[in-house]
Write a structure and sequence with these properties.
It contains two helices and 55 strands. It is mainly beta and 722 residues long. The protein has two domains: 347 residues, Methylamine Dehydrogenase, Chain H (7 Propeller); 350 residues, Methylamine Dehydrogenase, Chain H, CATH 2.130.10. The strands form 14 sheets. It has a five-stranded mixed beta sheet with strand order 28-32-31-30-29. Strands 36, 37, 38, 39 and 40 form a five-stranded antiparallel beta sheet that branches. Strands 3-33-34-35 form a four-stranded mixed beta sheet, with no helix packed on it. Strand 53 and strand 54 form a beta hairpin. It starts with 7 loop residues before the first strand and ends in a 6-residue tail after the last strand.
Length: 722
């Protein structure tokens, strides 16, 4: 998955600012009607609490029990024992100014604290190495390590064990494993990095294919010895503090890849998926400690730093094996289950998906670690929806292992749309991985207890909300419509009770990911799907869908990762909708480019504006098509035929703080026939929304974008003039 996670809200009425995403994901913001007036409004921003979500891809527990975790899309966290919450470590205030730019929040490739000093932390973020001497409170960019773009926190193999290793007795000696360029080492705290010799490069390894270096750790018994796995190329050992490496396995009768690894009591433990086994290297030879008997896959392994000979091996879904004699014998497999947690929706999905609680719906374990100073047998696991804990019994493990979620403070749901229908004190968050969360005003400071739709499978697979809308011509109608597909299941449908429950459309559209949706009336909806999948309308609330042909082409975007919403329906006139069709090809379909209008709910269409809404003159054809990626078309509540268009986020050079000068913010007041800039000082608006109607007769306008070159959350009370 991609994109950024935490959603923030403003205290006060929703009409006074509604919802924002401080990491600048391109959301559609619809702000509820509130009190009129143009007086200055004071805003206090707070997180819109959903809780957990996303993938926590790794965990580091220092010998003093300080805990750090990394995530695939939203930074890294440190556990605050006093408040029992996770604290975000990657922010505009903690990172160097040169590393801060809109839309550049990312996950963390790796993070580790020095065993000798838990306040000394190294992190790889967006292909660069950073160092903190205050527990992640602030970071310094280690510039001698050249940025490597394929070191992607959300890339292939993101859950595969450790990529940074800090020497157990010297915090200035650090090893960094890359995606394709081998291992780098420093002996002076990151001032200088040198590429190690003997460890193979992997030219074919990319963020999209596989990662090269996994299982990187220092031997705990002998100074200067370190281990690492080269993906599919075997294990390697260094005896000179990481400067040179030699092969110690080749994948023939021993492991070739480390999905999980641990250096423990002078041995190197490796969890291997295919074949699913846990291996041990004792400095001279390899031996298999345990092989899967059930067809499951080992994801993680950890040795207990306090209890001699105790090893925990964990499988993909949280099932566990424990050995108390250094791997000679093992307890029978313990199935995973979950206890009551701080994040109610995590309990909810387990109870709905598998009432017997014998197997997780989708919560793969990425990494496990024993807490060195906590209760005996206390283990933490980084996994698919956050962080879970378990206390291993002194005796036999038993038939089940009970994991407890401690995801409070983590906000990793991939937010695509925030919707707050006028007149309702309720917010709907449409996102990836867990569909839609609906939160009333009284619930905004509490964690969500459920989400939907769930689908009908016995086991909940990931479901993604791609598009969400309310009935445009009747804001009092509680109906919501959602485009939702994922996990080989299309669960697009409607809710008639403000998101409490959902009903699938009678006819499925397509299992493929992506798309957006608009609703004109209680029964007239329009859906666009990516690529050649087409655009469809229904006049009977989804019983029948008809593909729109003969007017404009299919979507030029096949990737589902863009946050693109190019259809909208009028808030006053039923069956009146628009679609902005854009081509990326130099071909005959250029004649279709422009804004199309329907007055019969999608049956027939008229091209009312020909060409690109944004002025891309002087740029290449590809750049002209920038309108296509994250663009958003919205109609104005209460004003028939009034439309706004933004290009959304425009990708450009790494850590570029300035807006794209061609990325206009445009509007039409005549049903799309003509367009003009809202304000020449406003550029590259990532998100927009409308608030309450003002005495002058027009709603407040909110944007996340650039005004006079400064990015922020902006409000206009005079229709964009200021």
């Amino acid at each position: 998955m991609t994109h950024n996670r935490t959603v923030f809200r403003a205290a006060g009425s929703l009409g006074e600012g509604g919802v924002r995403l401080p990491v600048y994901a391109c959301l559609i913001l619809l702000l509820a009607t509130g009190a009129a007036g143009a007086a200055e409004i004071a805003y206090t921003w707070k997180p819109l609490r959903i809780g957990a979500g996303g993938f926590v891809t790794g965990i580091n527990i220092n010998p003093d029990s300080t805990r750090y975790i990394r995530t695939d899309t939203y930074g890294a966290y440190r556990w605050d024992e006093a408040t029992s919450t996770w604290t975000q470590l990657v922010s505009a205030t903690s990172m160097p100014a040169a590393s801060v730019a809109p839309k550049e929040m990312r996950g963390t490739y790796s993070i580790q604290s020095a065993p000798t000093d838990s306040t000394l932390v190294y992190m790889v973020w967006w292909g660069q190495v950073y160092k903190s001497t205050n527990s992640g409170g602030t970071w310094t960019h280690m510039t001698d390590f050249a940025r490597q773009t394929d070191m992607d926190a959300n890339g292939k193999g993101r859950t595969w064990s450790k990529r940074i290793a800090i020497n157990p007795t010297d915090g200035s000696r650090v090893l960094v494993g890359t995606t394709s360029d081998g291992i780098y080492y420093t002996s002076d705290g990151g001032t200088n990095f040198t590429k190690a010799t003997g460890f193979p490069d992997c030219p074919s390894c990319t963020r999209y294919t596989q990662t090269s270096v996994t299982g990187l750790c220092w031997d705990t018994a002998t100074a200067g010895i370190a281990y690492a796995m080269a993906n599919t190329d075997g294990a390697f050992q260094s005896t000179d503090y990481g400067a040179t490496w030699s092969r110690i396995s080749d994948g023939v009768g021993d492991p070739d890849t480390a999905y999980g690894a641990d250096c423990w009591q002078g041995v190197y433990l490796v969890a291997h998926k295919v074949p699913s086994e846990v291996w041990e290297y004792d400095g001279a030879s390899w031996s298999t400690l345990i092989a899967s008997e059930s067809g499951g896959k080992f994801n993680a392994v950890a040795g207990d730093p306090r209890v001699a000979d105790r090893i925990l091996a964990v499988m993909h879904g949280g099932q566990a094996y424990v050995s108390r004699d250094a791997g000679d014998t093992w307890d029978a497999k313990a199935n995973a289950r979950v206890a009551t947690t701080a994040i109610p929706w995590a309990d909810f999905e387990w109870a709905i998906a598998r009432p017997d609680l014998s197997e997780t719906p989708w919560a793969p374990i990425a990494e496990v670690a024993f807490d060195p100073t906590g209760p005996d047998g206390f283990v933490l696991a980084a996994e698919g929806v956050g962080v879970r804990t378990v206390t291993l019994p002194a005796g036999a493990l038993g038939s089940t292992v009970t994991w407890t979620e401690i995801g409070q403070g983590i906000e990793q749901i991939v937010a695509r749309i925030v919707l707050a229908p006028p007149g309702e004190s309720i917010v709907h968050l449409c996102g990836w991985d867990r569909s839609t969360f609906s939160r009333t005003r009284s619930e905004l400071d509490t964690y969500a207890d459920a989400y939907g739709p769930l689908g009908t499978k016995t086991n909940i697979d990931i479901h993604h909300c791609w598009g969400l809308a309310y009935v445009a011509t009747d804001p009092t109608n509680p109906k919501l419509v959602q485009r939702n597909a994922g996990g080989n299941e299309d669960v697009s449908g409607t809710s008639t009770n403000k998101g409490t429950s959902w009903t699938e459309f009678t006819t499925d559209l397509n299992l493929n990911s992506g798309g957006s949706i608009a609703a004109s009336t209680d029964s007239n909806f329009i859906i666009t799907l990516p690529g050649v999948l087409g655009t469809y309308y229904t006049l009977d609330a989804g019983v029948n869908w008809t593909q729109i042909t003969g007017y404009f082409g299919n979507s030029p975007i096949t990737s589902h990762s863009f946050n693109r919403h190019t259809i909208t329906c009028d808030h006053v006139t039923p069956l009146l909708c628009w679609i902005y069709y854009i081509s990326r090809n130099d071909g005959a379909d250029d004649e279709d480019v422009g804004v199309w209008k329907t007055i019969d709910g999608g049956v027939t269409w008229t091209l009312v504006y020909s060409g690109y809404v944004t002025n891309w003159s002087g740029t290449s054809k590809l750049n002209k098509a920038m309108d296509v990626f994250n663009g958003k078309l919205k109609s104005v509540p209460g004003h028939s035929g009034h439309l706004y268009w933004t290009t959304g986020y425009i990708g450009r050079a790494f850590q570029t703080p300035d807006p794209d000068t061609h990325a206009w913010f445009s509007r039409s007041t005549d049903g799309g026939a003509t367009w003009s800039q809202v304000n020449t000082n406003v550029k590259e608006v990532h998100a927009m929304g409308f608030g309450d109607e003002l005495p002058a007769g027009y709603p407040r306008l909110f944007i996340a974008g650039y005004v006079s070159g400064t990015f922020g959350i902006w409000r206009s009370d005079d229709n964009g003039t200021s």
